[in-house]
Amino acid sequence: MTVSVQEADFNVGDETSRLTDGNTDIGAVVTFTGLVRGGTDTNPAATMTLEHYPGMTETELERIEAEAHDRWPLAATRIVHRVGPLQPGENIVLVIAASRHRQAAFEAAAFLMDYLKTKAPFWKKETDNAGQGAWVDARESDNIATDRWQNPSKTRR
Amino acid sequence: MTVSVQEADFNVGDETSRLTDGNTDIGAVVTFTGLVRGGTDTNPAATMTLEHYPGMTETELERIEAEAHDRWPLAATRIVHRVGPLQPGENIVLVIAASRHRQAAFEAAAFLMDYLKTKAPFWKKETDNAGQGAWVDARESDNIATDRWQNPSKTRR
Amino acid sequence: MTGTVKLMYFAWVREKVGMSSEDAQLPETAKTVADVMAWLKTRGPEFQAAFENDTVIRTAIDQTHAQHDATILNAREIAFFPPVTGG
Amino acid sequence: MTGTVKLMYFAWVREKVGMSSEDAQLPETAKTVADVMAWLKTRGPEFQAAFENDTVIRTAIDQTHAQHDATILNAREIAFFPPVTGG
Questions:
Q1: Per the CB < 8 Å rule, is A120 touching C81?
Q2: A48 Ramachandran zone, left/alpha/beta (phi>0; psi -120 to 50)
Q3: Which single residue of A65, A82, B133, D77 could bond D6 by disulfide (Cβ 3.0 to 4.6 Å)?
């Protein structure tokens, strides 16, 4: 099971060990951890609540993961995404890409995050200390980041 | 202390927590872990021994780290490099870059690794099961990877 | 039971329509996702508000991303949601 | 004690010269790193072997990377080593 959608926290060390232990073909492991940032003084974010589309989320994450394995020579990958209420400083998402060499691991981890951000059905709602909630807007920069992987000549091995 | 050269192993989870705990300005953490790969059937690598230049190593790693902070808006970085004899599957190096956003964290981690590979005074010697030792050759691909950061217009924020 | 499809709503679409899912009997004239959204808008002010600016709404058919002009032939589940913001 | 400098050798350079460091009295004619390597080669077969193909050897002056044409004026420590292979 390389994709998990869960309320529980994760530990990047434990998740990494689980992928690499006993596999001496792995020379490079890149992890990405996304965390809830605190707000600014004028706009403090007290809680971030993650909603998702059960069923589709897992299917979509597995599809993204399979595409990464098609594009790069990866020994292992892992995606963990938390749902439910999360406080500033808490982990949201973990992506791991393991390969023989570092370039494939770096590129695949960035690819997984870019695709996850624009394809996986999660939605963030920020609730400030006054109890006022606001859905987070999608960022155009995330679409641009995903589009850069569309040119096969630049990204496929 | 953000640079360590040590014989002891490291834990990517503990090292990440140490950087992020209590800092709610961090939204993205990228880690790179380099591991000793096992050899092929015809050329098994039994032990990898890491030699370095005490004093210069730490100075050079701190210089590389400072350059990353000049180039990207980073909340924190960390470099751990092991020395001495290491077996296949063991950790060699850990690089962590933490930032508000993922692009800076990804780019800075890749930059740190590229520069470390070509500038930090470490040397690897492989000893096979027959006790035959051979110094690992530098890879031209590592120089090419480092050169890509030389064009300021493409890499500086 | 042909003609019955499960409709799913997420995030602010869910909040505006006031429910997370329903089993609906679509009109026979609805052939695409866009047709379904046009029909939903006729179902009351909460639906009109949710689908007012329907170009921003993303859709999925049977848990796969779909364009607004995608056919709903044989669809069992159609979902409506804002652009995703995970990660 | 002017004129005395610490020479450091690493990896296969160290193995070939048979020592990791030494305090050396350099000839007054040695002005650059290249001059030092030329002089080292005259010190015996082990040095000749180590510095035979000296274009591949990397050098540092006082723990900072230096080119072969760098001046050794005021240098306290000069190091000789193969291209680095850490990471």
A1: no
A2: beta
A3: D77
